[in-house]
Structure formats: C-alpha cells, structure tokens
Amino acid sequence: MIGRGIRHLSNMARLNDKVAIVTASTDGIGFAIAKRLAQEGAKVVVSSRNQKNVDEALSKLAKDGLSDRVVGTVCHVGKAEDRKRIFDEAVKLGGLDILISNAAVNPTIGPILECSEQVWDKIFEINVKAAFLLAKDAVPLFQKRGGGKIIFISSVGGHRPFPLLGPYSVSKTALLGLTKAIAGDVATDNITVNCIAPGVIETKFSNAITTEGPIREESLSLIPMKRFGKPDEVASVAAFLASSDANYITGETILVTGGMHARL
Ligand SMILES: NC(=O)c1ccc[n+]([C@@H]2O[C@H](COP(=O)([O-])OP(=O)(O)OC[C@H]3O[C@@H](n4cnc5c(N)ncnc54)[C@H](OP(=O)(O)O)[C@@H]3O)[C@@H](O)[C@H]2O)c1
C-alpha cells in the first residue's frame, strides 16, 4: 500500500521545486488543491482565517505523508497584514511560483436589488479586491523566479448568475475579466493567469444545494452528468494549470461543471 502511494507521488511530480500559496485552503476545494499541489511535488502555504482550522488541515496533510511539503499560517484575505504573512511564508520556502486565489464569501441570499451596500462591498472586498491585491503582490515574486502561475477560482455563477446569489455571481463574473486583464499585462514575463469556474461541488459552501430536497433535485436536473462535482475534480484542473503542461494557456477560464450549460 505504502509502495503504491510513493509510486503515485513520483509519477506526478510536475511541481517539484515550486512554491505555492493557496488561499482558503483548510477545507473544501482549497484544501483539495493544496493537497494535490503538494502531492505533485510543490511546497504549499496552507491558510485560512482560523488557526485551529489551519492546524487541522496540516495534520490531515501530514497523515497523507505530506508534512515536509506544507506549512500553514492564518490569512484572512481581506486583511493586508495577513496577506503579507502568506507571502513571507512563501519567501521563507524559497520564493513564489504559484498563487491560487480561492477565498470567497457569500453572506446573502435573495433578490440582487435587495442586497445592501454594506453586503455588496463585503462580497467585492473578499471575492474581487483581495484576489486583485494578492495577484499584484505575487507578480514581483514571480518575476524574481523567472515566471509564475496565477489561478483564480470563479464559479459557473460568473457565467450564468444563480437566481438568489446575484452579488456573489457578479463578483465571480468580475474574476473572469480580472483574469484576462492581468494575463495580458504579464504575458511576456512568463506568467500565466487563468481561472477555474466550478459548477456545484460537494463542500460545506454548497451544503444548502447538495443536501436532500427540491433544490438538490432542481440543481441536478441542470447537470448533464447528473451528479455534483468533488473537490478533487477541481484540484486536478488547478494542478494542470499550475504546471508546465499549461505553459501556453493564459487568460482562460476552464469550466468544471459536469457539463452545465454556461456562457456569458
Ligand atoms: N462548492 C461549490 O459548489 C463552489 C462552486 C463554484 C465556486 N466555488 C468557489 O470555490 C471556492 C472555495 O469554496 P468551497 O466550496 O471549497 O468552500 P468551503 O468548503 O466552505 O471552504 C471554505 C474555505 O475558505 C476559508 N475562508 C473563508 N473565508 C475566508 C477568508 N475571508 N479568507 C481566507 N479564508 C477564508 C475557510 O476557512 P476558515 O473558516 O478557517 O477561514 C475554508 O478553508 C470559493 O471561491 C467558491 O466561491 C465553490
């Protein structure tokens, strides 16, 4: 069993010698991405708002034999001092090659025109502004290493707004534009900027959709594969985009939706 695990890791070592930051990586999609990048050889800075969650994530990764490839720190992406701390952690590991901007909030459910200015600002501060600021601080570190990869985590809602998640969906549409805007500016620096738009993936975030009931059935009816996605099925796409296999792809968004129809 152990021998099989080691073979599995060495076969996939596309990210040896790379250093990655994954925001919001103590659970769900971010955790799966952090784990997959580490399995592929990267050193990964794991983070979220809560130290206990960071510690638990690190101990789970240690159980998977990845303790020498992961470090953890608290980072609420809306706080400048926390963002600085994750970059400092990456520099301690040698520099930065990969930024996965995965954190998002959705504090409201309801018609978009009933969203308060305060809630709108909160959503855009975390989902868009923090993603922009992280990318802005990552680029000089990438330049020191001769290149880098940025991957934003958007949502199928960015292409096709969810009816009761309007502000969240619009913030995810903004990431599609941010991807293209930054990609164009850094293309000659050997830095690629891409985006993943997951469909409905089974995590705490999507609990209200994926647990039994009419919303679950209605959601499944929109998915040709008739099942929700797994965090690992997003992580594998992130690992591809973070690897040299995707060197000639930039400014793109990959939908990971089980075939849900979605276009802007
Ligand atoms: N699940 C889906 O169906 C789905 C679909 C499309 C897109 N997405 C996107 O995928 C991303 C991850 O979602 P998920 O489903 O994996 O969520 P999740 O399972 O609920 O995990 C959320 C993670 O984010 C951390 N977090 C929350 N707010 C944060 C903040 N301000 N700063 C830093 N970390 C923060 C949480 O840890 P702490 O509580 O310790 O901070 C936790 O590690 C989000 O961008 C989401 O919009 C998800």
Model description:
The chain has one domain (2-256): 3-Layer(aba) Sandwich (Rossmann fold). The protein has a 7-stranded parallel β-sheet with strand order 3-2-1-4-5-6-7, sandwiched between helices. The protein is built from 9 helices and 7 strands; from the N terminus they run αβαβαβαβαβαβαααβ. The protein starts with a helix and ends in an 8-residue tail after the last strand. It has helices at 2-11, 28-39, 51-63, 80-92, 117-145, 166-186, 207-210, 214-221, 231-242; strands at residues 19-22, 43-48, 70-74, 98-101, 148-153, 191-198, 253-256. The protein is globular, with a radius of gyration of 18 Å. It has 264 residues and is of the alpha/beta class. The model has no long low-confidence stretch (mean pLDDT 95). 46% of the residues lie in helices and 14% in strands. It binds NADP nicotinamide-adenine-dinucleotide phosphate (NAP). NADP nicotinamide-adenine-dinucleotide phosphate binds next to helix 2. NADP nicotinamide-adenine-dinucleotide phosphate (NAP) binds next to helix 2. Keywords: Oxidoreductase. This is Dehydrogenase/reductase SDR family member 4. GO terms for molecular function: carbonyl reductase (NADPH) activity.
